[in-house]
Amino acid sequence: MRTVAAAVIVASIASPAASQNVAGLGAVLCREVLPHMDSKPFQSQLFAWATGFLTGINMNNQANGQGYRDFSTMKMDIILGEVRAACARNPDLPVISAIEPMYQQFPARK
């Protein structure tokens, strides 16, 4: 687990996305993430980052008088599967680019 965490930290520091005000796993390039997608500890870290990021979008939208998305149907295996597929299609994208489009998939609420 420490090896995976160290690899992700190093990758996020060197990632071009880091210069775009993205921190954590979202800044890591897909090609750096794909080799770790079968690791249970890494899956947990990625899912935790993704849910925090998506929750942040919800909170920002609510603070600006917009609606929010209902995450009650969110499933870890689906999120991870979509990240894996998106990253396989374009390994040069940062992980955030694989996660951000998922926001629209959840039901809108006011």
Task: Give an overview of the whole structure.
There is one protein chain. The chain contains five helices and two strands, in the order H-H-H-E-H-H-E. With 110 residues, the chain is mainly α. It is globular, with a radius of gyration of 14 Å. The model is unreliable at 9-19 (pLDDT under 50).
Keywords for this structure?
110 residues, mainly alpha, two-stranded antiparallel ribbon
Describe the structure concisely.
The protein is mainly α and 110 residues long. It has helices spanning 2-14, 30-33, 40-63, 76-89, 95-99, and strands at residues 68-69, 108-109.
What is the number of helices?
A: 5
What Rg do the Cα atoms give?
14 Å
Major sheet: arrangement of strands: 1-2
Output the helix-strand order.
HHHEHHE
Gap between N and C termini: 40 Å
Class based on secondary structure composition and strand pairing: mainly alpha
Give the biggest sheet.
2 strands, antiparallel
Net shape:
globular
- Mean pLDDT rating: 87
Number of strands: 2
- Measured as a percent range, the helix fraction is 40-55%
Strand content: under 5%
Low-confidence regions:
9-19
